[in-house]
Amino acid sequence: MKIIHTFDDVSIEHEGTLIICDIDDTLFRYERNLNYFYKNLKHSFPELTEAELTKHSSDIYATYVKNRKPSPTDYDGFIRMMCKVLETKGKLIFVTSRNECSTEYTKLEFKSIGICYTYFNVYYTNNEISKGQFIQDKLDMDGVEHLIMIDDQTTNLKSVKQHCPNAECYRFVYRTNE
Asked: Cystine design at 48: which of 52, 78, 80, 142 (Cβ 3.0–4.6 Å)?
């Protein structure tokens, strides 16, 4: 797994590569992320179970993002990567842990950072199965010889590696301008 801070660091060397990209904290970000709400709930309500913490923090985060505009993590790098995907006859799709009920505001988020949602296939796992399991069970991988996964969460990348051992995984770590 390679750690990257820009999409320019994604190495697309083969024609027809499928790139699967996460959305939250990878394509765009908010001032506060899901982990912020999780930690605050855990601190304020230590009696909550892990499942309750996950559900409540996800609900709070969903409300938070619906009321704010995201910022792109690396707009210029994303556009350059997209050009490379097109040059190499590849494909870029998004797989997110979000629920399908968030589709409409996800479209608005894409629009707010200048990216056309309808140009891409966007898949929602509904936080029900791991991204690796989702890719294995739900996506047609016939003919895919080269797979790249970009995500900010190590657990998602590990699950992709578990289900797709030949996948090249990149952990996107947002870096603020110092």
From this structure: 52
What's residue 177's pLDDT?
55
Same structural domain, 43 and 118: no
pTM, two decimal places: 0.88
Euclidean distance between the first and the last CA atom of the chain, given in angstroms as a whole number? 25
Task: For residues 85 and 113, state if they share a domain.
Answer: yes
How confident is the model over 92-117, as pLDDT tens digits?
999 999 889 889 989 999 999 999 99
The stretches in the chain having pLDDT less than 70 are 177-178
Q: Is the alpha carbon torsion for 146, 120, 77, 97 positive or negative?
A: negative
Residues 56 and 140 in one domain: no
How far apart are alpha carbons 27 and 106 in whole angstroms? 12
How many structural domains is the chain composed of?
2
Residues 125 and 44 in one domain: no
User: Where in 97-175 does DSSP place strands (E)?
Assistant: 122-124, 147-151, 168-172
Q: Does residue 49 lie in a domain region?
A: yes
- Residue 175's pLDDT is 82
89 dihedral zone (left: phi>0; alpha: psi -120 to 50; beta) = left
